[in-house]
Automatic annotation (TrEMBL):
Pfam families: ABC_tran. This is Phosphate transport system ATP-binding protein. Residues 25-273 form the ABC transporter domain. InterPro entries: AAA+_ATPase, ABC_transporter-like_ATP-bd, ABC_transporter-like_CS, P-loop_NTPase, PstB-like. GO terms for cellular component: membrane. The keyword Translocase applies. One of its GO terms (biological process) is phosphate ion transmembrane transport. The keyword S-adenosyl-L-methionine does not apply.
Length: 277
């Protein structure tokens, strides 16, 4: 198999960015198409600063598409088209005056399947989250950043004595926390998580939930989950997405999570949260 040339960490990375203030994310009238096919129809959702917002709903209703639109990652699909606005603390991330990298540097993403660089060390995995820009960080700055990210990712105590071990040697749950740590290296203001625990066992899932609850003090979190108990345990606000046969996804109901689970206003939400879908 071909080997990838990875730049030496010493030479490559920017100085440690400062911690940034909490930010809200506000999606307004998001309509999305893949080619001719409309997959989201005028979806609006406010994701308050410092809270955890859960996106729930059946497969195929547009949750992942919506999440990717929140940091412009859907632009990687050439057929994707978008109408609407996404405001990060009031600034439209789609403003043509703004660089794409602005949005990506403020809004991190963690995926369903843990995807650390397996051959790279734990330390290098964390530092790989920084962009190559030419500016260099001192060794002590890099060490401080690695510790900061691994502490926030809930992994520091388990790996602090083996930071040079390969990321691929960790358990699945640890790998996912390493990915969370890596996403924190840019000091994001918002962290998007697409079913981050779906590939993990219940114990690892609970550890990640605890990590998220701690992290929400510093980073606004938006999580897609199929696990209703998880949505109830971690989120402050919840949005229920649905796409009726052949129609684009919409938000049927959103609001305070506890209220939505105990007293859903829409019969379809009631059916879904009670497992009748
Ligand atoms: P969810 O995450 O809720 O399961 P998705 O956002 O992945 O839903 O998908 C929403 C709809 O968009 C689905 O009908 C899916 O088939 C379609 N879709 C997703 N990604 C693409 C793509 N890259 N190209 C074309 N259609 C896509
Ligand atoms: Mg999805």
């Amino acid at each position: 198999a071909p080997t990838t040339q990875i730049p030496a960490v010493e030479d490559a990375y920017v100085a440690v960015p400062p911690t940034r203030p909490l930010a809200a994310l506000d999606a307004r009238e998001i309509t999305a198409w893949f080619g001719e096919r409309k997959v989201l129809d005028r979806v609006s959702l406010n994701m308050p600063a410092g809270q955890i917002t859960a996106l729930i709903g059946p497969s195929g209703c547009g949750k992942s598409t919506f999440l990717r639109i929140l940091n412009r990652m859907h632009e990687l699909v050439p057929s994707a088209q978008l109408a609407g606005e996404v405001l990060l603390d009031g600034d439209d991330i789609y403003d043509p005056q703004r660089k794409l990298t602005d949005a990506r540097r403020s809004i991190g993403m963690v995926f369903q399947k843990p995807n650390p660089f397996p051959a790279m060390s734990i330390r290098e995995n964390v530092l790989a989250g920084l962009k190559l820009t030419g500016a260099k960080a001192s060794k002590s700055d890099r060490d401080a950043l690695v510790e900061y990210c691994l502490v926030r990712g809930g992994l520091w105590n388990e790996v602090k004595d083996r930071l040079d071990a390969p990321g691929g040697g960790l358990s699945g749950g640890q790998q996912q926390r390493l990915c969370i740590a890596r996403s924190l290296a840019i000091k994001p203001r918002v962290l998007l998580m697409d079913e981050p625990c779906s590939a993990l066992d219940p114990t690892s899932t609970r550890v990640i939930e605890e990590t998220m609850l701690e992290l929400a003090k510093e980073v606004t979190i938006v999580i897609v989950t199929h696990n209703m108990q998880q949505a109830a345990r971690v989120s402050n606000t919840c949005a229920f997405f649905l796409a009726a046969q052949g129609t684009p996804g919409v938000i049927v109901e959103h609001g305070d999570t506890a209220a939505m689970f105990s007293n859903p206003q829409d019969q379809r939400t009631n059916d879904y949260v009670n497992g009748r879908f």
